[in-house]
Design the sequence.
């Protein structure tokens, strides 16, 4: 009888030990699975938003272990690429491109962590004392604008000049129109231009070389939109990136790089 009881106890112990071993191995496999490298999120990003997006990408990788694979370009060129490819996870753009993609049924939702506003940039110290749109009509001012054929910033500025009756007088001082905010900032820094109107982020990015002047003219706020694409194959990760962008940390990063109001 004693031998039989001992045998039953041993069998029970062996069953418990085996069960614990199975649970332990299962947990180890789950942990290893969680640590396997994940495919990076595919993020289409307008060039204007690149500096902040790259910093947030580093934060995101530290938090999740997943990187971001960027496709940078003008928002107007990324839009048809998303439609044709039918793949990707996130689209970072500004008005009206996020809304346009949403109207076509390609966006699940979006968050708005910052904004873009036209800002005047001038030589350090603002030697010509340029503060408003009317000042840009002063004789001899060499002005640069974004090309309205390709730039939302250029379109907004041209429309406001027309509304104020300044299209002709200020237009006479426009020496160049470009597709790159950075090119205009460089022209001002080198003295090829006295002033240019660019997005707020460009004024902040080049603050060591030029001065940013908030014009005494209320421009419409252009929203910065981080869109979750309906074609995403990594919804959970994409949602986590949107959450990061609209968090206090995300808004602070966009603000640091100049995507903010005055």
Sequence:
């Amino acid at each position: 009888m004693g031998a039989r009881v001992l045998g039953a106890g041993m069998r029970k112990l062996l069953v418990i030990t085996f069960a614990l071993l199975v649970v332990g191995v299962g947990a180890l496999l789950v942990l290893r699975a969680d640590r396997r490298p994940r495919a990076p999120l595919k993020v289409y990003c307008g060039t204007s938003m690149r500096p902040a997006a790259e910093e947030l990408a580093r934060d995101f990788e530290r938090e999740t272990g997943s990187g971001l694979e960027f496709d940078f370009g003008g928002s107007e060129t990324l839009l048809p690429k998303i439609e044709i490819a039918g793949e990707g996870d996130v689209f970072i753009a500004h008005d009206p491109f996020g809304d346009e993609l949403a109207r076509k049924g390609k966006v699940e939702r979006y968050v708005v962590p910052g904004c873009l506003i036209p800002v005047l940039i001038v030589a350090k110290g603002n030697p010509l004392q340029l503060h408003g749109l009317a000042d840009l009509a002063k004789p001899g001012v060499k002005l640069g604008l974004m090309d309205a054929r390709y730039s939302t910033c250029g379109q907004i500025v041209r429309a406001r000049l027309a509304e104020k009756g300044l299209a002709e007088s200020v237009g006479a001082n426009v020496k160049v129109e470009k597709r790159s905010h950075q090119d205009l900032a460089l022209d001002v820094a080198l003295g090829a231009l006295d002033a240019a109107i660019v997005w707020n982020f460009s004024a902040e990015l080049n603050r060591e070389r030029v001065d940013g002047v908030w014009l005494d003219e209320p421009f419409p706020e252009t929203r910065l939109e981080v869109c979750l694409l309906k074609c995403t194959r990594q919804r959970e990760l994409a949602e986590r990136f949107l959450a990061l962008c609209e968090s206090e940390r995300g808004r602070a990063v966009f603000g640091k790089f100049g995507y903010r109001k005055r």
Q: What stands out?
A: Residues 87 and 231 are 5 Å apart (CA to CA). The longest helix spans residues 2-35.
